[in-house]
Amino acid sequence: MTNPDPHPDEVDCAAGPHPDALEVLAPREVPLGGPRAMTVRRTLPQRGRTLVGAWCFCDHYGPDDVAETGGMVVAPHPHTGLATVSWLFTGEIEHRDSVGTHALVRPGELNLMTAGRGISHSEVSTAATTVLHGAQLWLALPEDARHGEPRFEHHVPDPVAGEGWEARVFLGSLLGSSSPLPTATPLLGAELTLAPGVGLDLPLEPTFEHALLLDAGSLTVAEGPLAPGELGYLAPGRASARLEAGGEGARLLVLGGEPFGEAIVMFWNFVGRSHEEVAAYRADWQGQVAGDGDAAAADAGRVVADSQDVAPGRFGTVEGDHRRPLPSPALPGTRLRERH
């Protein structure tokens, strides 16, 4: 998914001391655009926190009645230096990308797209979808992986269950289940469902920082409650976290990873290491969507009408999607700052 903000904020994030208590990050609403604008709830990045491990972007959406919102229609757009993780609870999304992938995103199935040096893709909810509900997550790639070849991987995790709980581990390891997909940094990603009134001592990797995104129901972590849509941050050093589901039960995503030891620069759909690098990525994309390498023309609004006419460039061409590629927002008037 793209970052749909027409004027994305340059968020100046500082790494403050990690509190012993649960840190609750409230979401902000961001419209995807269009007359009926599907809205997502964004908890990463924000001023208080940029990263949880390598997780650097978290959009949570739905359940949305597609007849009312128009569903998801995200035209071809670029990415660099990151990997996208698509996870659905309800509905279906058609994914196409510039490495030739044509795949469907379905509930309980992981689509992992690694941008590396550059990729472009599109995402559109299918005609069969009546309710759309899920999460779109990004992972920052470390220096030794961020210039690699783009690729796409699909994985269907087998559920594991215990007394009153069920989990699907799509990255890393949790509750005796492991994903076979390799990651550039040590990571965890899982869906966890708790029955009404169930308590669980969730085992944690002490070297990881963790985040709990509550999708539905009610949940209390040992240190306090989480409301649906909120992201609860847990600092490294914990071997477990006590979770208590309310009367409706709870469904959440458990995210984690070793603290990301590199500063990054994020703007729109690009992750780099400096203002100059990100500006160069943007110029490459603007030139590509202008069809003739002329970034100034794209900035002036001259964008090709058909993605098939886009010169391949760094980001390639999304075959089979004829929507107009999304031009990049303008850079801010000041230098982009590093995020830690």
From TrEMBL:
InterPro entries: Pirin, Pirin_C_dom, Pirin_N_dom, RmlC-like_jellyroll, RmlC_Cupin_sf. The lineage of its organism: Bacteria, Bacillati, Actinomycetota, Actinomycetes, Propionibacteriales. Pfam families: Pirin, Pirin_C. Residues 191-286 form the Pirin C-terminal domain. Residues 39-139 form the Pirin N-terminal domain. Belongs to the pirin family. SUPFAM superfamilies: RmlC-like cupins. Signal peptide: none annotated. This is Pirin family protein. It comes from the Bacteria. It comes from Nocardioides bruguierae. Residues 312-340 are annotated as: Disordered.
